Model the fold of this input.
Amino acid sequence: MDAWERQDKEPNLWYDRFERFRLLGVGRSIEEVFRGESTAKVSKGQHTRRPSRYWYAAARTWRWTERAEAWDAGERERIRRAEANRSFYARQVRLRRAAKMQQDGETIHRSAKIDALTPAAARELLSAGRGLLVEGMKAERLEYGEATVITQDTDKLKVSQKVDEAIAKVYA
Done:
């Protein structure tokens, strides 16, 4: 049984008051619970300003503070686990998207029939395929905490020259 659940032989009245105490959160106080209950009594013509000694005795007997702190700790852990799960599944989605981009880039390059295209169309198609492949690789590397800058500016020129050479061979 969790500490914040109703304890063996705990009167329902005091458990109900404890529940309100627990749900007040970190700044909780017996006085706040009392005021909430007292507000209802004021409308009926009954009113006292402070909780009686019975309130404090019941809170000690039924360990309100200890139980509420156990609740707080449990909630923090539940929230931490939920956030870890959300983060894990979001990462899996991003990795699948990165893999799909890479696959699409490879598919474009494998299935490209550049001899059936104009040089400009071939250059555009191969560039799009390379863009998907490179951006998918960068996204994947980013998820694993690896460097995403894997080429230098001079390498872009070399790739562009290689694409131009391949296109020139087809049309030669």
Q: What stands out?
A: The chain is about 75% helix and 0% strand. Residues 12-62 form one domain. The chain has a mean pLDDT of 87. Residues 105 and 128 are 7 Å apart (CA to CA).
